[in-house]
Design brief:
476 residues, mainly alpha, two-stranded antiparallel ribbon, 6 strands, 62% helix, NCS2, transport, transmembrane helix, membrane
Length: 476
């Protein structure tokens, strides 16, 4: 214990070993779904000769775990920050459905783009360019990121809990059969129990809430209850029976642990690439991951009290390098872009302040290699009540914004709104960065605008053009 306290400077961060371990377990449980979700998404695009679909899914689960463990270990031992990393949602969907299935790019070439992006990240981080660009973020955007991520977490959590459902007219609605949906009832009960525990200052309240909800879910499943996933079409509620505990039907075998067909597949993908099309794919991966990571680091750091008076994270180059190494390693062994997870906020709320929290997460990922399905033991709705709890707590961050100054209020407000409504951290940051110089110019305060902020705004405009104009498809 004494060694851990010295290695991670626990005393200087006003924490202790037990608190860090608790925070690490909480973060892992909250983000462990990625071990199941990432392979499910990537397997739609990646097929390996001589391997069954089940074996391919298991292989992807193994590389997901390894990439998450490596990146989070670097975060723990080099950066000494309580941030966990894994292949990012959204980026894996872009990899599978847009690049590979939509544009017809071989999955090996898509992996090559991920590796190139990771190498670029490493180089830019080493020379300080990534940290410099993040410091160009306008102050109101930095202070708004936490609140925006909070709303983003709330949407994700409430959806997994079956509290909200889709609607063709309003896009979102309250679950129309909430009272007969076991997942919704158990989730809300678990949520209020967690809030009560947190309000009573019970140590490990978020983790206890997850455990209680999990136990209730397995109990209800044993009694024969099944979940119903609401999908509303034309005003009629449709339901599909599903497992209440979220277990998969994949059969795990020894062959599924042999990941050699995925490791190094990016080398094949580098041959015969179209320079323009490949560059645009790399640009898209690069852009989204850059600003997603920047937003997550800033938002979670705000909760932990890591930011300085200017809204910057001291020694940000260290967690950024961990992210870059994770992406590079992930692409090399066969998975999409690795990024910092907003679920790290759950561990921070439990008191995690150092790399010991991240070390616990990394070790739990490695332990799950022994039995891959172990990571799926916690139902999605149970782990995601933590996101709603943290979402409420993250709204406290908006008090740092100067709402009386429109050059702060407008960029901050857009940052907060756009994140949940577009399901993207980077889009929220983009809205704030583009709005800031425009509002400042309208207020005749041109001197407050850094030249680099105009460059960032222009870069975002170009990014949106690439993503939505069909240029990417045309180039391929």
């Amino acid at each position: 214990m004494g060694t851990l306290e010295q290695v991670f400077d626990l005393a200087d961060h006003d924490t202790d070993v037990s608190t860090e371990i608790l925070a690490g377990v909480t973060t892992f449980l909250t983000m462990s779904y990625i071990v199941v979700v990432n392979p499910a998404i990537l397997s739609a695009a990646i097929s390996v000769n001589g391997r069954t679909t089940g074996q391919t899914i298991q292989m992807l689960a193994v590389v997901t775990i390894i990439s998450a463990a490596v990146a989070t270990l670097v975060m723990a031992l080099y950066a000494n920050r309580p941030f966990a990393q894994a292949p990012g949602l959204g980026l894996n969907a872009f990899f599978a459905f847009t690049v590979v299935l939509g544009l017809g790019v071989p999955w090996q070439t898509a992996l090559a783009a991920v590796v190139v992006q990771g190498v670029l990240f490493v180089l830019l981080t080493v020379v300080g360019a990534r940290e410099y660009l993040i410091k160009l973020f306008p102050e109101p955007v930095k202070f708004a990121v936490g609140g925006g991520i909070g709303l983003f977490l709330a949407i994700i959590g409430l959806e997994a809990m079956h509290v909200v459902a889709s609607d063709p007219a309003t896009f979102l609605q309250f679950n129309p059969v909430f009272a007969t949906d076991p997942i919704a009832i158990i989730s809300v009960l678990g949520l209020f129990v967690t809030f009560a525990l947190y309000a009573a200052d019970v140590p490990g309240s978020i983790l206890l809430g997850i455990v209680i909800t999990t136990v209730l879910s397995y109990g209800a499943s044993a009694l024969g209850y099944t979940a119903r996933n609401p999908q509303v079409a034309e005003g009629v509620s449709l339901y599909t029976p599903a497992s209440l505990t979220g277990q998969t039907d994949v059969v795990y075998s020894a062959a599924g642990y042999d990941i050699t067909p995925l490791v190094g597949a990016f080398i094949e993908g580098l041959s015969n690439v179209d320079a323009l099309g490949f560059s645009l794919i790399v640009f898209t991966f690069f852009f989204v991951d850059f600003f997603d990571t920047a937003g997550t680091l800033t938002g979670v750091s705000q909760i932990a009290g890591f930011l300085d008076e200017d809204g910057n994270l001291p020694q940000m180059d260290r967690p950024l390098l961990a992210d870059a190494i994770g992406t590079t390693v992930g692409g090399i062994i066969g998975t999409s872009t690795v990024t910092t997870y907003i679920e790290s906020s759950t561990g921070v709320e439990e008191g995690g302040r150092t790399g010991l929290t991240a070390l616990v997460v990394a070790l739990l990922f490695l332990a799950s290699l022994a039995l891959v399905p172990l990571a799926a033991a916690v139902p999605l709705h149970a782990s995601h009540i933590a996101l709603v709890v943290v979402a409420v707590l993250m709204l406290r961050n908006i008090v740092d914004i100067d709402w009386d100054d429109l050059s702060h209020a407008i960029p901050a407000g857009l940052t907060i709104f756009i994140m949940p409504f577009t399901y993207s951290i980077s889009y929220g940051i983009a809205a704030g960065i583009i709005a800031y110089p425009v509002v400042k110019l309208a207020q005749r305060e041109r001197g407050d605008i850094h030249a680099g902020q105009w460059v960032l705004a222009a870069a975002f405009v170009f990014y949106f053009f690439v993503r939505t104009s069909g240029l990417l498809a045309g180039a391929l």
